[in-house]
Amino acid sequence: MKEKKPLPKLLSLFLSFLKIGAFTFGGGYAMIALLENEFVSRKKWLGKEEFLDMLGIGESTPGPIAVNMATFIGYKVAGVIGSLLATIAVCLPAFVIIFIISLFFDKFLSLTYVGYAFRGIQVAVVYLIGSAGVKVIKDMKKNLFSVLVASGVFVAFILLSLFAVNFSSIFYILISGVLGLILYLIGRLRAKAAPEAPEVPAVAPSTKEQGQEGGEPPSREDKV
Amino acid sequence: MIYLTLFAVFLEIGAVSFGGGYGMLPMMRDVCLSHGFLTEEQFMDFIAVAESTPGPIAVNMATFIGSSQGGVLGAFLATLGVVLPAFIIILLIAAILKNLLKYRGVQGFLSGVRPAVAALILATAVVMGLRTVLGVTTFSGGFSFNYKGLIILAVLVLVGLGSKYLLKKKASPIVMILLSAGLGMLLYGVL
Questions:
Q1: What is the distance between the alpha carbons of residues A138 and A130, in angstroms, rounded to a whole number?
Q2: Which domain covers residue B76, as residue numbers?
Q3: Strand, helix or coil at A110?
Q4: Dihedrals φ, ψ of B139, to 5°?
Q5: What would the pLDDT profile of A86-115 be if each residue is shown by its tens digit?
Q6: Which of A99, B25, B73, B79 would be a feasible disulfide site paired with B62, CB 3.0-4.6 Å?
Q7: Are B79 and A95 in contact (CB under 8 A)?
Q8: Which of B37, B53, B72, B109 to mutate to test the interface with A (most CBs of A within 10 A)?
Q9: Which of B34, B45, B90 is the best mutation test for A, with the most CBs of A within 10 A?
Q10: Residues B105 and B165 in one domain
Q11: Are B128 and A129 a contacting pair at CB < 8 A?
């Protein structure tokens, strides 16, 4: 095996993520295409399957998907140092640009016509979040449980907001997650009670090439 | 101590925000309103800026909110907080817990989280819309119908649907923001 020079690779990793952080508008989806182009097609650091596995994991774990992917790809390419550099690189442009804007934003907003423009823009924000919400609901895997959870959360959130009750969104997420877990456990108990029930295999044996990262086949659901 | 608060609340958001940027907005809104960091209008202005600038929305929002509350150190700590859980969780999965997501229990948990996040995003839009367009914040509060806002919303929906069905292309968020800015200046300034 030929020894690869670590420094140029780290540098190239850093620059790639810096570029991706600086040129992806609108977050998530736009970035996924860029990442694939950069690391699968051009640099060939990752296989197509491997990339899709990572994407599936990135979409199922908390946090900004850009950060999930940067950490993952960075680790694959150059270990912990790689993941650190990639994550810093992907966040750096956003941090610098927004910090500079934040210094002038109040003054900017106090200009009369900018103020008017932002009254219009606030409506656009409602529209953008609303259309994102509609898309995620459409893409959601629909079964009795998921529809009940979604409608319950939807109604509860709106009612509690209108009654000015302070209830953090975090609780909706955690409670719904625990309900999902309980549902799974009940299903498993039933399966155990029934004779000849097929054993629930938790983990598939992983081969060296695939399955190494674990993860579901990537599903784009619940992503905007 | 504002720095500690910023770091802690964004760490919490980073740890439970499934579903990427938009999934994070309901929680950021909670935090900003309940800690009195921002008003609803300011929060929406920040979202518009985050949408119009490059980079992950979560990082943009954390930097912006952090900077507004605690300058450069606030911006840094909020961003660090929002990124750290994702970084650590992915490192753990990549290095040690390779099959974490294959466990059925984890899948069970996620099967509850996914519809909840989807509903939260839509519900947040509804609550923001009630406020921006109808002026309804709470049942006990007043009601001030903003017909200009409704006109802008109607134009955006029409353009969005037109772009989707006629051009077969999703209208870019930046186009929608620019369009609404123009309409805002026209309706509130000129007319």
A1: 12
A2: 2-145
A3: helix
A4: -65, -35
A5: 999 999 999 999 999 999 998 888 888 888
A6: B79
A7: yes
A8: B109
A9: B90
A10: no
A11: yes
